[in-house]
Amino acid sequence: MRYLDKSGLSKIFIIIFHLVGLIGFLLPNYHDFFLSFVPFHLLLMAGILIANQKEYNKNFWMCTVAIILAGITVEIIGVATGAIFGNYTYGQTLGFKVADVPLLIGVNWFIIVFCVGAVLKKYFKHQRNLKSLIGAFILVMMDVLIEPVAIKFDYWSWQDSIIPLQNFVAWYIVSFFFLRAYYEIDFRKTNKVAGVLLISQTLFFIILNLTVV
C-alpha cells in the first residue's frame, strides 16, 4: 500500500524518533540518557534523508560531501577565531571533535540545507538566488529556535552567555552560499521526506523553547 512505501515508513520513523527524543528532553531524569543518543539521531536522520533521495549521481554525492566538509571547515575557523559567528565553544553533546568542532556539525549542515533546499525547489522556478535568499532566512529562523536549546543541553556555549547578532548575520550569509551551491550543482532535488523532517525539527525546538528553556 502507498503509505507503507519507503518514503511513508521513513516519515513515520522521523516523527516517532522526534517524539521520543522530545519526551526524553522533557523529562529531567532522562536528559543524560537521551543526550547520549543525539549523535546517532543526527546520523539516522541524515541516512533517512539520503535513502529518500530521488536519484543518485556523482553530483549529488559531490554536493553532499562538499556541504559537510564546508560546514565543518567554517565551524573550525569560527571556533578558532571568533571572526565568523562570534566567540563560542562546543560542548560534549555532539560527540567526537576535530580542532574543537564536532564532526557531526557538518552532517547537521547537510541535513538542514538539503531539507530546506528540497522543500523550496518547487517554488520560484529557475530563480536560484531568490530561493537561496528565502532558504537562508528560514535557516536563520531555525537557528533562533535552536540556540536556547543548544545552550541548555551543552551542544555549545557563548562567551559571556550572550548570543551576538554577528552569529545570525553569519548564519544567513553561510546558509545562502550553501543553498546557492546546492541549487547550482545539477542533480535531482526531489526528496519526499525533507518537508516532514524540517517540520519535525522545527516543532521539536519550538516545544522545547516553550517548556524547558
TrEMBL record:
List the InterPro entries hit by this protein, alphabetically: CruF-like (IPR007354)
**Membrane-crossing segments per the record:** 12-27, 33-51, 63-89, 101-120, 132-151, 163-183, 195-212
**Annotated keywords:** Membrane, Transmembrane, Transmembrane helix
The keyword Metal-binding belongs to this UniProt entry's keyword annotation: no
Transmembrane as UniProt keyword: yes
Q: Origin, by domain of life?
A: Bacteria
PANTHER family assigned: SLL0814 PROTEIN
Please state what the protein is called. Carotenoid biosynthesis protein
> What organism, scientifically named, is this protein from?
Pedobacter cryophilus
